Amino acid sequence: MFEQHRETLDRALSAIAGRGYWSAYPESPSPRVYGEGAADRGKSDFEGRLGKPFPLDQPDTGSWIGAERSPYGIDLGITYPKPDVEALVAAARQALPAWRDAGPEVRALTCIEIVNRINQRSFELAHAVQHTTGQAFVMAFQAGGPHAQDRALEAIAYGYAAQTASTSSVRWEKPTKGDPLVMEKKFTVVPRGIGLVIGCNTFPTWNAYPGLFASLVTGNPVIVKPHPRAVLPLAITVGVAREVLAEAGFDQALVQLAVEEGQGLAVELASQAQIIDFTGSTAFGDWLEANARHALVHTEKSGVNAIVVDSTDSYKGMLGNLAFSLSLYSGQMCTAPQNIFIPADGISTDEGHKTFDEVASGIAAAVRRLTDDDAKAVELIGAIVNPGVLERVEHAPALGEVVLESRAVKHPAFPDAVVRTPVIVKLTADQREVYDHEHFGPIAFVIATGSTAESLDLLRATVSSRGAITAAVYSTSPGTLDAAERAALDAGVNLSCNLTAGVFVNQSAAFSDYHGSGANPAATASLTDPSYVAGRFHIVQSRRPA
Prior knowledge:
By secondary structure, the protein is α/β, with parallel strands linked by helices. Helix content is 42%, strand content 18%. The chain has 20 helices and 19 strands. The strands form five sheets. It has a seven-stranded mixed β-sheet with strand order 14-15-16-11-10-17-18, sandwiched between helices. A five-stranded parallel β-sheet has the order 7-6-5-8-9, sandwiched between helices. Helix 18 runs parallel beside helix 19. The protein is globular.
């Protein structure tokens, strides 16, 4: 199990240092990659779980819970063991010493085996992600499968690198006038304690895997609490992890699932955890940061992602890129743009001067072209993940002048799916009460400003006060691009410049792109960097005379 993964670990360590392109897990769902019949087996495995209890041999109360319903209109009917929190915590604590004593290398190679087996279940996971999040199938396969697995491996590599940055033992000799002083010293990685991963509804695996594997590789047992609407992808993940841990001779309680019925479980578990990884609402993220002072808390919350349009030498490319970014998964991504700042007097382009209204109409027309054909649109925009998003879309026309109306789309394969195209609303810079908070979903604002300088000031101000995961700028002026970089540094947000082709602002590549920065209110950490893993363990020294 271990020897086959040493090369993978070495390549991952090289990748996090070099930051170039590398992926351990192919993103194409082609049978040439994953084998003939893999897609059919994955679908069959998923369908075989519907309407049945999900087996997990872990401490529970004896009752079963679960109420997942697909955004595509299907009741999953899967039930999960209701957790006994006290017993889960006790089991996790009991499992920790042997996992700690195994050392960083064994932990890393075991974790890679878990990810490798998860990869073999990518098609099953794709259907699970699709029918809990509303993502279209290909996106669910890629983001919920190989891309999430790459992020897991990245976290493993960072965790291993941090633990092995210095030697684990040394013979220490200090010269003296007589015999030297000689000591044998040993330095042991000691895990912080129980890790708690609180999952989200939209990207249950992609957002959970970094925290899960960063804690696990550094010696910490992990309790996974999925979002109530997106349990299955993480239940499958936990099942695979427990299977591998048992085969490797470790206690399965190193990874456990805690499914919630009602509310309050996350608060109860947070009081017992020493590490907390959370993705979700600002309100609960702020509560964790304020109240879980006993724990290392990493949160990713809401933000107002911004784009500044100054000028472009590829007008059609810019419009197409923006339209795709606004439409992908109906804007239900923490990286999706919301605020598009454009000078009121227009911009210069390779097609001549364009007025503000022409740019706004151009973006709307580009979105319309992408989403006019229902059968093609659903493969891009997916389905609306929950009723709250639908309510915001329906309310959006009251916020300003509508440039593009949202429309209901009929899904050819799932007649009960709730699908909506993006809505675009025109605002002015002084309507900050509207655009200065997140409107999660397929809602975007084109905002008229007095100048590009004001646009950059508003980017800096909104991100500094409300947070953002992404920002972007379009300009043919080197001076403006430099000014945009300074604004992004001031606000602590990752910046993309002049995206007109196959790279989009709401996509993030493992081993190269950092997701979030930890430098603005949208997130307290970056996925993943050295600081993301360093606080998950301590070094304890033992020394004795040689």
